[in-house]
Amino acid sequence: MLPTLRASLPYTLALAVLAYFAFAFFNLEINQAWFVVIGVLLAGILVPVLVDVKGAAETTSEVPTQFDGETATLYVGNLPYRANEDAVKELFSSYGAVKNVRLMKDRQTGRRRGFGFVEVSAKDAAKMINKLNDFEFQERTLKVREAKERQEDDSQQ
Hints:
This protein has helices at residues 5-25, 32-62, 85-93, 122-132, and strands at residues 71-77, 98-105, 112-121, 136-137, 140-141, 143-146. It is elongated. It is an alpha+beta fold. It starts with a helix and ends in an 11-residue tail after the last strand. The model is unreliable at 55-63 (pLDDT under 50). The protein has four helices and six strands; from the N terminus they run ααβαββαβββ.
């Protein structure tokens, strides 16, 4: 994911100025405007890579990706029909460890039904409910609660 312009602009300008002075130091027979162009081009290539690597290092150290121990299952309702398991897992992973995501589909049509279940670390479940209930995700307001155990219907025996 490319960083936002606001985040990378100061770095781009700083690298452009450094490149200008570095190339000017060599006293080449080139117009000084070209030094600025070269600096901006170098910064435009390097800054997104550096900011993206720095951001990835920060996010991976905050939330554990694997865990052992108790799990809790969360019900997630009002999901957008276009949402997939990876997008939901990415959203929930920003608040804790996610073990599994299951989005329900209609048996006959195969289309998503707009709800699913996320299996998470028990210690992160309450935080995820607090942060993600009524959270707007892909233009829909999510409903996140602890999942209830499915009760068997006595009349179907």
